[in-house]
Amino acid sequence: MSRLFQAFLEKVKGMGQVGVSLVEAFDEEALLALAEAERQGFVSPYLVGDPEKIEKAMRSSGARLENPTVVEAYTPEDSARAGIRLVREGKCAILMKGKIGTGTLMKAVLDREEGLRTGRILSHVACLEVPGYDRFIFVTDGGVVLHPDLPKKVEIVKNAIGVARLMGVEIPRVAVLAPSEVPNPDSEASMHAVELARMSREGMFEGAFVEGPMALDGAVSPEAARIKGMSGEVPGRADILLAPDVVSGNSIAKSMQYFARAVMGGVIVGAKAPIVVISRADTAQVKLNSLAMARALV
């Protein structure tokens, strides 16, 4: 277990139990994570889906849930609606993806009549404990908004700042990533960074620093920032990396995981409840970390 996430989990344990609606709840790794989160005392599991499939997955995984509530549903669409209804009725405070396609789940979440819309943009915030760093590094958005324009990036930044604060970062530092630190009119990412930095100076992101454009090395390496002659609050000390698009965000987070052995958690924010949507390849530990993040956001 990683040091930062272990300390964070200890903090979450004292927050008390909230319901978690696991949609199509026959995902073995998700069940293991849910069982551990229940054991640690911060969730109460609701398992949505075909009871026979759920029982089989529990036996196969060895997940030992103490007091699960099973909600019958026999198609992915019905499971998504039932899982969301648990949130709307106040029985659950967290929605979690099981063996259901992300597109199917998010379509139900975004349903104008029965979904979980708030009027805010939905975005994914990945939280990574990277070996050699004494703080969490947050990456956004690597999961929801394919190619955000400037107004969407404003909201994505606000979402990420909110998550970072609730995870203990008092004054989040946001690096707006671009090809280099020199503004380039031919680069949309660069021009968006210039505008976001201006907005930050004018008070748009109260209690946080948003600066850019900057490349990844200057954002996270004090030595690289020094060599490049970068000034400001963010260079070399970024807490949050704002990616230009979803492919970049996803690639940065996954590169940290697979090349640097970073430990990760992640959550979608902006809906009426935090949503835990994990890659099929992610482990039970990643899903436990994500549940802990979601619990802190409730």
3D structure, described in words:
The protein has 298 residues and is α/β, with parallel strands linked by helices. The protein folds into two domains: 3-118 and 271-297, Rossmann fold (3-Layer(aba) Sandwich); 123-260, Isopropylmalate Dehydrogenase (3-Layer(aba) Sandwich). Helices cover 43% and strands 19% of the residues. The protein contains eleven helices and eleven strands. The strands form two sheets. A six-stranded mixed sheet has the order 8-7-9-6-5-10, with helices on both faces. A five-stranded parallel sheet has the order 3-2-1-4-11, with helices on both faces. A hairpin with a 6-residue loop joins strand 5 and strand 6 (136-140). Helix 1 (3-13) packs across helix 11 (284-297), helix 2 packs across helix 3 (51-61) and helix 2 (28-40) packs across helix 11 (284-297).
Task: Jot down its keywords.
2 domains; alpha/beta; Isopropylmalate Dehydrogenase; 298 residues; six-stranded mixed beta sheet; Rossmann fold; 19% strand; 11 helices; globular
Secondary-structure blueprint:
Elements: H1 3-13, E1 18-23, H2 28-40, E2 43-49, H3 51-61, E3 69-72, H4 76-88, E4 94-97, H5 102-109, E5 123-129, E6 136-140, H6 150-166, E7 173-177, H7 188-201, E8 209-214, H8 216-220, H9 222-227, E9 240-242, H10 246-260, E10 263-269, E11 275-276, H11 284-297
Parallel strand pairs: 1-2, 1-4, 2-3, 4-11, 6-9, 7-8, 7-9
Antiparallel strand pairs: 5-6, 5-10
Helix pairs in contact: 1-11, 2-3, 2-11, 4-5
